[in-house]
Each structure stands twice: as C-alpha cells, then as structure tokens.
Design brief:
The chain is an alpha+beta fold. The chain has helices at 9-16, 27-37, 171-189, 209-218, 267-280, 296-301, 325-340; strands at 43-46, 52-56, 64-70, 75-81, 87-92, 104-107, 110-114, 135-137, 151-154, 159-162, 165-168, 195-201, 222-230, 250-256, 262-264, 285-290, 306-313, 321-324. Strand 10 and strand 11 (165-168) form a beta hairpin. The protein starts with 8 loop residues before the first helix and ends in a 9-residue tail after the last helix.
Length: 349
Amino acid sequence: MNQLPDAGFVDLLRELTQTPGIAGHEDAIARQMAGGLGRYADHVQIDSLGNVIARLGDAGAAPRIAVLAHMDTVGFLVKRFNPDRTLGVVPVGGVNLKALPGSAVRVGDLPGVIDVRAQHLAQPGDLAVTADDLAVQIDPGVAPGIVITTPVTYAPQFTALGGGLVCAPYLDNRAGCAVLWKLAAQLAADPPPGAVYLIGTVQEETTCAGAMCVLQAVMPDAAIFVDATLAYDTPGTHGRGAVQLGGGPVLTAFLYVSGLNGWHAHPGLRAHLQHNAAAQGIPVQQDAIRGLMSDARAASWLGIPSALVGLPMRGKHAPLETIHLDDLEHAVSLLAAALRHPLADLSRG
C-alpha cells in the first residue's frame, strides 16, 4: 500500500477504506498504519495481537497519553458451501443485515455479491433478513480456491459527494485511523510535552481484546479514543438525538449496550477537551448513547481515565457509510490542542 505521507483526507480515506481488516484479520491495515505513523514517530511496533503502537516523545517523559482508534471492521467468514454453489457466511461484528442484500463483496481477493431475490419474485417478509439467509454468489470456477473461514468484506467503493461529504465502506473506523495519521504529522511538526502514544487497535468490533492488551502494556496516564459515532440528521433518525454531520466531533459522555457493557467518560478529561475546544474555537457536539460501545470500556476496566472523541456518521456498519470531512479536520485540531496544553489533575473525589 502507498504510505501517502502528504495526502489530504480524501486520498487517505480512499486508500484506507480499500484495505481489508475485519476483526481478527487486521494484518494488512496494521502494516499500512505502521508505515504511515512510522514516518512521524520516534518508535513504532506491531504487537502480538496486531495493535500498532507509535510513540512520539521519550518513553520516560510525562504525561503519557494514548490516543487510540480501532483498525478492524465488521465483515463475515465463510461458514459453509451451499448446494446451489453459493456461500453461507457468519457475521463478524454487528453488520447491518437490512442493508446487505444485493451488496458487492470480496471473498478473500475474489469478487462476489450477496444474493437478493428479484423484485418480480418478491415474497412477504423478504426484508426480514437473518444471518442464516445470507448467501454469497461467486464464480463457481473459483470456489475450489475458497475455504471455510475465508474472510468476506464489503467491496471497495468511494464517492466524494460534494460539500465535504464522503461515502465509502468501513469509514468506521478508517476515518479514525485517518485522524491518527494526520494527528501524527501535526505533532511531529510541533511536539507536545510528555510522550504521546498513537495506537491502532484490533478486535474492537468483537471483544475489545486489542485495546485491553495494549493499554495494559502502555499504562498511560490518560486515554482518548477516536471512533465513529451516530448522526441523527436523516429522515429515519430525526428526533433520536442532536448530532449532525459537519457539526464537529462529539464529546461522548456515556455508552451502554446491555448487561455490564457500559462506559462513562472521565469528567476531568472530557472537561479538558471541552476547554481546549472553546479556547481554539473548535466546534464540538455532545451525546450520550444507548446501543453503542467502543474500546473505551477497556480503559475503564484498567482504571485509566478515558474520553471519547466521536466522528459523526450516517449508516454505521452498512456497506456504505457517510461522514463529513470538516468533522475529521476539527477532530485533529482538537486532539492536537488538548495534547499540547497541560493536562489537568484527573484525580476524583
């Protein structure tokens, strides 16, 4: 892959969204991120799980702050060979089942398409798709080259819609990876105090194991996560929240899915981000979300103060997702300002 050292966000996103990397299979995107971040870092490595760890500054300096974005995506693994010569698959992560029929995919390096019944043969309930309904059509001649557990990913597509909008698969969280890349360039030109660890994590879409492993190894004083978040500015989402594309990155206060899967932002670290946004005139938005989780929960389990900078997105986990480039630019500016200014006392009570 090209390292695109001086690329703008559009070229960088186009390249990053073409690189496969479903959860558990992130080697290609890890190599790409290590090459990009390594241009600016004092040290870069890929650990045993596939996390990319790039350090800017001396390892013994203080404070030690980590900025993390997950590299993995949702996708599928081949589960079975059907009698009709299609492939059955198992989802990896929370794929958007309603958006899948008719979508172009890649089975390993080979083209395929998720089967959809012709509208002329439509039956009641066709829209109620389950994972067991998914069947991937491929060229029967290449089937012998495919094995059970072969990764299946959304086919690369990239469209600049105009007005700052970009549409592609896997912007969750290749948009966050692009923010890390551009942040590295800014910090190298004007280094902050202490040591900054820019980290691309693995397996966020399934277990958060990558974040847990790397945070235990680095044990930073604070961790800031950069990840896709929800936008509520389409007809189907109006009234669900206030976040809009182009309104700025989101300082998320709370995430919850079910059971023990919850996370709260550290109030002092979140206030530090808010203060720097206000001081620099950077627009930010606020949200608290039920139905979404991130790697940030791993920081809570380790007692590391954490905050989440969300990148507003439409169509999360669908074959095509949409973002606004201004939100990414503002996220880079916010993170750079927050890292360059003294970190407040994060003690509680």
